[in-house]
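Quick one:
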Amino acid sequence: MAPPSQLQIALSALQRLVKEEASYYKEMNQQKSRIAKLEATNGDATDGDGNEEYQLKQEKKALEETKAVIPGLREKITNAREKTETLLDSAASEEEKQKAIDVLREAKELQKDDPVS
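Output:
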């Protein structure tokens, strides 16, 4: 089997980064819902364990850490997109080139609107 081309390597990296970004956004939404749930039950002490305030503080901290990771990841995606675009002319086949164009289009579309600002 022939080794992967530079374009295939760049495409794989870009796809991985896009998938990673999606998982961070999913995690961020889950954290927001847990925070909302904790804030809603914060005045209600029926749990009995008494650590609601600590849990809320930890969830908010985790949310801020997740938000802090995303800008660096977006920069990596931008760099990977640029690298992939420069390698488009070196595509071994028209099929490979079309796949690269599709992945680039998807990555650009996902970065168009940034919910974390």
